[in-house]
Amino acid sequence: MNGTLEAILRRRAVKVFEPVEISPDLREQILDAARHAPSSFNTQPYRFYWVGSEAEKAKVANLCLGQKPAETASALVVVVADIGSLTATSQGQLEWMRRSKFSDAKIRDYERTAKIGRILFMPGPFGIFGAFKWGIFRLLNMWKTMGMPPTSRQDLFKWATKSTSLACENLMIAAEALGINTCPMEGFDGRRLSRYLGLSARHHEIVMVIAVGKKSHAYVEPPQWRRPLDATVTVL
Ligand SMILES: Cc1cc2nc3c(=O)[nH]c(=O)nc-3n(C[C@H](O)[C@H](O)[C@H](O)COP(=O)(O)O)c2cc1C
Fold this sequence. Notes:
Elements: H1 3-10, E1 17-18, H2 24-35, E2 46-51, H3 54-63, H4 68-72, E3 75-82, H5 86-99, H6 104-120, H7 128-140, H8 153-177, E4 181-185, H9 190-197, E5 204-215, H10 229-232
Helix pairs in contact: 1-8, 2-8, 5-6
Bound molecules: flavin mononucleotide.
């Protein structure tokens, strides 16, 4: 079977891990695969907090409600949707384009797109601009086929969560391919974990925590059940 497909089909949410060390090289490969996931407008609106030291891990495991995968993992990755990173990201891409000697026309084109993106994605103070935008776009949509940009901060987090989740899946598949197991978790105290990491409610939302480690020999996986294909797919 194809290696990628094999890693996808082999991956399970592992609930108990062996105490093994994850080398910096392995850590980098796993995180590097995560950031290669596709993202909306290539904005990569996320940040990964790799928690590997014993003391910090114990604190984070506790904030993951003391769940077994969190308590036994070699590392915990707190994955955060970061809507405050957009300006720095577009500046970073612009600098990369200049260094890579993109044509002036291409650079101007990107600058213009980034500027429009910033305006479109800005909810403004108290969401007033967002509400105004929503009204305008709904009106235009009456006679024009078009997509709706995120208009509120909540919309923006929903938008960022899509790209962040794809990066999470890349992380888990890459780990699996490298012989490391994972468990995604949404069972955590988001308020306390955000405070612990020094996150801002304005820009950051924790999407999930991924426990990373080597499956315990003593752990017996339950059989894997999935809805049948025809219950989840419509072919038109
Ligand atoms: C968004 C999300 C949140 C999850 N949260 C938890 C969790 O808090 N604790 C846990 O043990 N498993 C958690 N899981 C793992 C699921 O229970 C698991 O993926 C599912 O039962 C299917 O099992 P499998 O991944 O082994 O096929 C979560 C999975 C996802 C995708």
